[in-house]
Amino acid sequence: MGLPPSPRPLPPVFLMLLLLLLPSPLPLATGDPLPTESRLMNSCLQARRKCQADPTCSAAYHHLDSCTSNISTPLPSEEPSVPEDCLEAAQQLRNSSLIGCMCHRRMKNQVACLDIYWTVHRARSLDSDLCLKFAMLCTLNDKCDRLRKAYGEACSGPRCQRHVCLKQLLTFFEKATEPHAQGLLLCPCAPTDRGCGERRRNTIAPSCALPPAAPNCLELRRLCFSDPLCRSRLVDFQTHCHPMDILGTCATEQSRCLRAYLGLIGTAMTPNFVSNVNTSVALSCTCRGSGNLQEECEQLEGFFSHNPCLTEAIAAKMRFHSQLFSQDWTDSTFAVMAHQNKNRALRPQSWMPSLFSCTLLLILLLSLW
């Protein structure tokens, strides 16, 4: 006898909420027949009744369940919108007995049990979009959320003003904590996940932040040199992201190169990912019409698009971010960053799986990598 069909998929935004819930979802039991729920350890039906006896838990579960129908599914290019009341409900269920509950294929009231199970647990089995997860981490941080909303408003709409958009982008990458800023921009995506790749590419709102028609790269540099801040940022980037060899060795540390790269976002030399399917970056400019300065122009453009130091620094950071969201550490990463709105120092929590996990999260929050 097979399992009944899975319920309808939950909206991605709601899936992000459920990532706040702690231990990994347990699979449905498939051993010897257990015909009654009383023979199951922590069946979802029992856990739901226990939750109903607690007014706080019952209200939180009821509200969380209603979020699945009230929150619309965003398009890949849209940012997730997480109502604060739904987020609060998810947090209230973190220590509930619903977490870790299970169902058996032969038990009575199986449909009701599975409905509870999937409501609480399906997020981790379906959601693999790490860019959404990092967006959620930003939403959970007051400062990051405020700064991100500011540039989101400035860079949206058909009549957005590019100079205002760039100013807000510059402010975000200057004032947001480094783990949040780098997590949003340098989130890893599976090569086949174009929705994730599109979300990453749209982080800097390229439709407003980048020029509508690609100018000559040398003209872009001339504009940059006319602004003292942009000029100093470009020199900083060329200094710390200078490749020493074809293997990607940087003149300085990779972390310093990434800081210099992010420092250019919001200036006339704002770079971005060139597509949704890979991590190649480039300036929004061309070398057509450069005449006798063609080689100089191509060198400038290639410092972004064919720079082994920058390429390896971005790849290494994405590997680091991917490791943070591996099976063992997803929940503790969310829980820690959700509570460090004003304090970047991480204090060990009793629910952390291990000292090693705590150490890794401390590295993320203090940006010591």
UniProtKB/TrEMBL annotation:
Q: Does the keyword Aminoacyl-tRNA synthetase apply?
A: no
Query: What is the annotated signal peptide range for this record?
Result: 1-31
Tell me which GO cellular component terms the UniProt record holds: external side of plasma membrane; receptor complex
Q: Does the keyword Chloroplast apply?
A: no
Source domain of life is Eukaryota
For this protein, the record's Pfam families field holds:
GDNF
Write out the annotated subcellular location.
Answer: Cell membrane
Q: How does it sit in the membrane?
A: Lipid-anchor; GPI-anchor
Domain GDNF/GAS1 residue range list: 44-125, 131-208, 217-309
Q: Which GO terms describe its molecular function?
A: glial cell-derived neurotrophic factor receptor activity
Chief location: membrane
List the Gene3D superfamilies hit by this protein, alphabetically: GDNF binding domain (1.10.220.110)
Keyword terms: Cell membrane, Disulfide bond, Glycoprotein, GPI-anchor, Lipoprotein, Membrane, Receptor, Signal
Protein's GO biological process: nervous system development
Subunit description: Interacts with ARTN ligand and RET: forms a 2:2:2 ternary complex composed of ARTN ligand, GFRA3 and RET receptor. Interacts with SORL1.
Spell out the PANTHER family in the cross-references.
Answer: GDNF FAMILY RECEPTOR ALPHA-3, GDNF RECEPTOR ALPHA
The task this protein performs is described as:
Receptor for artemin (ARTN), a growth factor that supports the survival of sensory and sympathetic peripheral neurons. ARTN-binding leads to autophosphorylation and activation of the RET receptor.
What family does the entry list?
Belongs to the GDNFR family.
**Name of the protein:** GDNF family receptor alpha-3
* Protein encoded by which gene: GFRA3
